[in-house]
Amino acid sequence: MKSILLFITVLLVAGCSSSYNPSEKMLTYKKTMTTEQAIKILQKIIWDEGDTKGICGARGFWYDESSNMLVHEENVSMLAHKRGKELKNVHQTHDDIVVFEKQYYNYKFEFKEIALIGIYKDPLLLTTFPACNNPDLKDDYRVIDLFSSKLNNLKFIVPNAEFDKTMAALAILMPDKRVKNK
Q1: In CATH, what number is assigned to the domain containing residue 146?
Q2: CA–CA gap between residue 123 and residue 144 (Å, rounded)
Q3: What are the phi and psi torsion angles at 69 (to 5°)?
């Protein structure tokens, strides 16, 4: 019985993620891409106002959806907010409603702190990030997770048509990061 459980565990671990193998198209993009081009590509993917692609989840900070996120060579900077002083506290029978003031600050999601770049081919695997399951997208897409820690990551949607170019941009900006298919 123990050997069967061990076998099933090994299968689950091995089957859940695999190493990413760059395509020829991605490698071609990478050979000709400059750092400035990589920044522009990632900027367009992560935060292109008026488009359905972009950030679909974050952990470790709350970003302000009404402000821009800017991609730089070392980080993505954005206006974020944290819980400030309590403004309102309403006690109800089954639960309480507590409203807090938003304290805004400039947050930098540093590329050097990223431990892993995860690629989700099936966004339905991201049940805790429902915005990553975007029914408005007509084209197939993947979700890329810039994973710093269990408590700090940034997820964004990439249409399959732009996937190789985006991966080349990430390879330019974060050349030493591990990449895994999830």
Answers
A1: 2.30.29.30
A2: 10
A3: -105, 135
Checking DSSP bridges between strand 96-110 and strand 18-19, what pairing results, if any? unpaired
pLDDT in tens, 157-170: 888 899 999 999 99
Q: Is residue 15 part of a domain?
A: no
Asked if residue 2 belongs to a domain, the reply is no
Write the CB contacts of 137 (distance below 8 Å, at least 6 apart in sequence): 52, 53, 157, 159
In a domain, 10, yes or no: no
pTM for the model stands at 0.78
pLDDT tens profile 83-134: 788 888 888 888 888 888 888 888 898 999 999 999 988 877 777 777 787 7
Q: Where does residue 54 fall: left (phi above 0), alpha (psi -120 to 50 degrees), or beta otherwise?
A: left
Q: pLDDT, tens digit, for every residue of 11-64?
A: 344 445 578 888 999 999 999 999 999 999 999 998 876 554 688 888 888 877
- Tokens at residue 30, please? 């990478």
